[in-house]
Amino acid sequence: MISSPGRHDFVFPKGGWETDETACEAACREALEEAGVRGIIDEIELGNWVFRSKSSQGTGSQEGGCKGHIFALKVTEELDYWAEQKMHGRKWVALEESYALCRYDWMREALDLFRIYLFNKPVLSVAGLYEPPKFHISTSAERVIASC
């Protein structure tokens, strides 16, 4: 997880992608730029969410809405220095601890899917933190790539 300037909670590396790259390539690039990690990405997305994006507000998108796609990345290299190191600190946490650090509910839903992906275990429910997840796992035919 990564920090953002002036905040005490954490987010996942994320961002838009260029027309000449796939969503997976963009996810790897964002992980490198924001968290300073390289790895092997699983090209099957864990899920996708629509959320508000500050950068998309006022650009004609529905109320600043953005569709994000989440992928699992097996980290194989952790850099000492990376492009956005001054803006984003990197924090390694246990899966169970990460739920409390998440800024948004959709991130906890993504962690639920990641838990199933890793361990094929039932979804973790953390009382009082959020409502039980309501999500849809996309098939490859349903994938829509939208830049945020």
Outline of the structure:
By secondary structure, the chain is α+β, with helices and mostly antiparallel strands. Helix content is 24%, strand content 18%.
Index terms:
two-stranded antiparallel ribbon, disordered C terminus, single chain, alpha+beta, Nucleoside Triphosphate Pyrophosphohydrolase, about 25% helix, about 20% strand, about 150 residues
The main pleated sheet reads as: 2 strands, antiparallel
Mean pLDDT: 77
Distance between the termini: 20 Å
CATH H level, superfamily name: Nucleoside Triphosphate Pyrophosphohydrolase
Description:
This protein is α+β, with helices and mostly antiparallel strands and about 150 residues long. The chain has a single domain, classed as Nucleoside Triphosphate Pyrophosphohydrolase (Alpha-Beta Complex), CATH 3.90.79.10. The chain contains 3 helices and 6 strands. It has helices at about 25-35, 95-100, 105-120, and strands at about 1-5, 10, 35-40, 45-50, 65-70, 75-80. Strand 1 (about 1-5) and strand 2 (about 10) form a beta hairpin. The longest helix has 15 residues, at about 105-120. It is globular and about 35 Å long.
